[in-house]
Amino acid sequence: MSRFHRLSAANRFLTLLLPTGLLTAFTPTALSQDDASENRPTEKATDAKGAKKKGKGDGLPARKKSDEKLLKFAGEGGRIHHTDHYAIGYNTEDPTLRAFVHRVEATYKAVTRFVQKVGVEVKPPKEKLQILFFEEYESYSAYRLLTTGSEGSESTPGFFSPTDNRSAFFNYANASHLKQLEREIAEARQEMQGAAKFGARFDTRRLQALEGNLAREKERTNRTVVQHEVAHQVLFNLGLHAPVGERDTNPRWFVEGLAMMFETPPGQGGAGLGAVNQNRLADWLELEKSGQLIPLKQLVSDPSVIIPPARTAGAAYAQAWSLVHYLQRNKGKQLASYIDAIRKRTDKKTYTADEEIKAFEEAFGPLDAKFEEKYKSAIKRLPFKPE
After folding, report:
1. What is the predicted pLDDT for the residue at 54?
2. How many structural domains compose the chain?
3. N or C terminus of the chain with fewer C-beta within 10 Å?
4. Rounded to whole angstroms, how far apart are CA atoms 36 and 218?
5. CB-side exposure of 101: number of CA atoms within 13 Å?
6. Does residue 75 contact residue 120 with C-beta atoms inside 8 Å?
7. Measured in Å, how far apart are the chain's first and last C-alpha atoms?
8. C-alpha 17: how far from its chain's center?
9. Measured between alpha carbons, how far is 85 from 96 in angstroms, rounded to an integer?
């Protein structure tokens, strides 16, 4: 099975594809101690009664009633933690929470930097955005069932619901396959210690490979799940997408493609705005090489191609990222116009394929062979550094 298909099988948005979600599954969280050691929460954890009021420099305001409602879902031993932009209901250990806080705040910064660069006018959310962060899959699954009608699985351990305006995750380090990997690492370390005790040789390559696999899985999941799903939440709350009511009128390729812009490693300024998403680029290059790229007109006009379990979903995710990346780098002013047009939509109308193509072409020009060739050439010139 190719690398592309392995990633595709692991991902989701709104139905969730890790290249990730449907309005009920925007996606996992694997948290590393390296993150935890470098970052500290901006405020102390409290219960709802003890929630701090907003003060100077505290970011978005907290609401007592919202905190009380969030706390009801947080599970046994649940508490509320406030950051500058989030109210997090959680029952995880504090080091795990610290790593999570770093990710979500970095993503918020990255999205706001994107908005400023594109030049789209937005209003900040009226209160802190809500997140639930469960220690175990069982609690997360119960909440997901209550919210979406589906328990999901460990391979889809995070989502954002525009209807409830709340995202939820579980500590992916507790996923069964990661626990098994940690047991194998522990056994290998014991073998190494035993060998050292008796002066025997021990091949460390297997241990190093296991440790590398664990670290890569955690980092990949953090970026393609936590950052992806939280990006959805921030983008909706800043008003870059049309509100979701009886129906979702947002172009699915754009909702997903824009969230994938924020899957890159977080830095001081956020989650790497403008950086090349190497995982998605790897998928795109494999698709291009094998002649499996979806025609752009189909990607833009047919939302079914990007919704799992469609066989085209994996390809559509990679292409959605690449198209948004291309537009952001090469057609910034037109992108702002497109965003303004899309977010004015209401849920009173269903948009046809022809109307989606018209909306795209009114902003970016004809979606013809010349456009597609320029887009492909630009993506192929991007620096590729396999991860």
Report:
1. 43
2. 1
3. N
4. 13
5. 28
6. no
7. 18
8. 10
9. 18
Q: Which residues of the chain have pLDDT under 50?
A: 1-57, 269-270
Comparing CA positions, the residue from 294, 297, 306 lying closest to residue 256 is 306
CA–CA distance, 90 with 98 (Å, rounded to integer): 11
The pLDDT tens digits for 283-324 are: 999 999 999 999 999 999 999 999 988 999 999 999 999 999
Spatial contact of 331 and 34, defined as CB atoms under 8 Å apart? no
* Tokens coding 130: 């809500």
**Cα-based distances in Å from 297 to 49, 294, 329:** 53, 8, 20
Query: Which tokens is 79 given?
Result: 């508490």
Q: What interhelical angle do 332-343 and 353-364 show, nearest 10?
A: 140
CA distance 306 to 22: 10
What are the Cα distances from residue 46, in Å, to 15, 101, 161?
33, 15, 25
Instruction: Give the Å distances, CA to CA, from 363 to 94, 198, 235, 333, 357.
Output: 46, 71, 20, 9, 10
Does residue 385 lie in a domain region?
no
Tally of CB atoms within 10 A around 177? 11
Q: Is residue 241 part of a domain?
A: yes
Task: Output the six-digit token pair for 11.
Answer: 């991902």
Please give the single-letter amino acid code of residue 344: K
Residue 332 inside a domain? The answer is yes
Considering the domain boundaries, does residue 387 fall inside one? Answer: no
Domain, as residue range, for 134: 3-380
- Dihedral over alpha carbons 99, 102, 108, 113 (to 10 degrees): -140
Residue 222 burial (10 A CB sphere; 0-12, 13-18, 19+):
buried
